[in-house]
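yo, NB-ARC domain-containing protein is done. seq:
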Amino acid sequence: MDLAEISPSSIEASLKALRSGNPPHGGLFALVEGIRSPEEKRLVIEDLLINTITDTYLQMRKVEGLKSALPANRQQTLAQIFEDFSTKNSDLQAWCCLYYRYLSPIDLSVEEISQAACVVPQHLRRRINQGLALLTQTLRRRALQNHSQVAAVTQHLPTPEYTQLVGVQSYTSLLLRLFKDPEGPRMVSLEGMGGIGKTAVARAFVSLPENVALWQKVLWVSARQTLLAEDGQLTRSPDASATLEDISARLAEQMGLAALAGKPVQERLEGLRAALFQNRCLVVVDNLETIEEYQQLIPALARMAGSSRFLITTRQTLRQYPFVHTLPIQELPVQSAYELISAEMTRRGQPGSLASRDFAELYRVIGGLPLAIKLVAAQLKLHSLNEILAGFRSAQAGTDGLYRFLYWKTWQSLREPAKQLLLSFLAANPEGEDLEFLSIMSGQSQQDFYTAMQELDAFSLLETNTDHEPTLYRLHRLTVTFLQTDILNLWSGDSTDERTQSG
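structure:
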């Protein structure tokens, strides 16, 4: 959010546009962050301007002991302007000028307003400028307040797994309808194979302003990745959420019920049930298939719903539970997939290097898996499309084989410092770390570290959270899985050589 975009000039341009039926100035889009539809942005901004000016103007008249009502005709309008300027309240005069210059249904020229106010046009201009300054302050405070409220509600959300989203609006719109409906399902599951974008859809949806407005809190729990210990052994993350006890403890902490987190699990569940019945919360359980006892977890969570709702992402279908609304996430259609790979290639400085007819052949091989498309976009900077297609055809069939091939090709393309840095991420916080921490953890010189970071980013191996200050970096879960199962096993002698793995 850039408050500097909300300025007297952008506000006046929007008010003039409002009078002529044109869209508002783009600078005011900072007031409607998260709203995608241009028409919806326009309506929200217009309503905000009209309501803020009108309500404040009438309130200022009330403070001065004047009638808090708008005039019904031209004669009453001119009389009310005279009345406002007869007071010594310059703020009332400023709001009066904004209303009658830009919003009043009675069309008045600058000369008419000046004559009614008994001032010269130059003085009227000063009062208009004063009004624009007051309105700017009001709208900036409103934007900050909204931003703070959103931050408070969404403080437990993880780092987004995307820089650009394609093909998710139909899912987020449906989720919004389901959760807005008082009679809607208490539990919804987003289902699909790994890398298809379940978490991305969930993360995009829960951060929508329209969704945030529905809840007092948005909670997010997920099974944590294992960590790489100093002795080279894979160990469980200390704050893993892989059991019903883990999940309930994390939920209690995020609800601000620290004392409850230390209670026995059944007592904790009862306390959570009472809290979730009293408060409207949206609870996201990400990567359900990695959680032990999930078949016991689902009914336990359902009993806690009350005024709250649950959103689940999983590779395992939950169709066996009649109280769960299942929503399968499909692969991107060919056009959306082409938009994604084009955007990824443009981001890497190679726009227009893949014709749509060539992509059609690639799509027949890899389908519309977003993660696979991003990895292929990185490979196209080093290899021709024919080379990549030949590699796919010789690789093991199936989705696992597809990802394994892509990751091996990427691994083999990395220089040694980038490989070492990639492995060091296994010891990082799965929610992300900042550059300073990663640099220290890598043990590399500054030059090697930043060069390696750029290399990992070029191959789509990094996910960034630019909303956080400072920016956080982490790996996609499937990247972590590849490092743990293929690379570490290779080094320990439990895997075949790289030539065989890469197809």
